[in-house]
Amino acid sequence: NAGVTQTPKFRVLKTGQSMTLLCAQDMNHEYMYWYRQDPGMGLRLIHYSVGEGTTAKGEVPDGYNVSRLKKQNFLLGLESAAPSQTSVYFCASSPGGANTEAFFGQGTRLTVV
Amino acid sequence: GQSLEQPSEVTAVEGAIVQINCTYQTSGFYGLSWYQQHDGGAPTFLSYNALDGLEETGRFSSFLSRSDSYGYLLLQELQMKDSASYFCAVELNRDDKIIFGKGTRLHILP
From the list B43, B48, B101, which residue is nearest A100 (CB)? Predict the structure, then answer.
């Protein structure tokens, strides 16, 4: 059982380039989330989705877009990368509602130079 | 807005007991969760309190008091492998966001 899989695991971008991070889950979870983790800042919610075809803004959505065309996939896009977006990105999924156990992917380490 | 406050670091001795506190300001949530994260790894779920009181899972226990806006994670019989960061989190029942605290780094001394 793969759980939550993130692609890629590492990436270096130049300022202004674009990229898409892919998150796939095989647990049939309704809810999916994208977080960024920076030293001393914990996990900050970027965007999330409570079902196929839905997305919503989290705490730090600026500079990112997301799409949830299929229930199992949640894509995070950076249209024009900035050095401030250098971070570790985690995707998570959960059954949603009152069950708050979230399952995390292994993370994507992104460096923008 | 919503916020969760935790100590940034805690140090304890192997074999001892340590408590990591979490105070929160939020308008409504389903329950309080705790996650563990080792260096270079992903967060993993430890426990969940939907109701006030103590929940026990092996060496780990978690407590919630909604009236005091407070919870804690209790780790007993500390082992070196417990050295990690611990995060409290809430799922808001208004909009289903899961919000995390900034984490507590647990250092364990031999």
Answer: B48
The answer, for A63 touching chain B at a CB cutoff of 8 Å, is no
- Whether A61 and chain B come into contact, CB under 8 Å, resolves to no
Answer yes or no: is pLDDT of A1 > 70. no
Mean pLDDT score across all residues of chain A: 95
Q: C-alpha dihedral over A13, B84, B24, B12, to 10 degrees?
A: -150
Q: Which pLDDT does position B2 carry in this prediction?
A: 79
Q: What's the rounded Cα separation, in Å, for the pair A85 and B78?
A: 36
Confidence of residue A13 (pLDDT cuts 50, 70, 90): very high
Cβ of A97 under 8 Å from any chain B Cβ? Answer: yes
Q: Which of A4, A29, A34, A43 to mutate against chain B (most B CBs within 10 Å)?
A: A43
The CA distance from A89 to the nearest CA of chain B, in Å, is 10
The series of mean pLDDT values per 10 residues for chain B, 110 residues long, is: 91 97 89 95 94 94 94 97 96 86 96
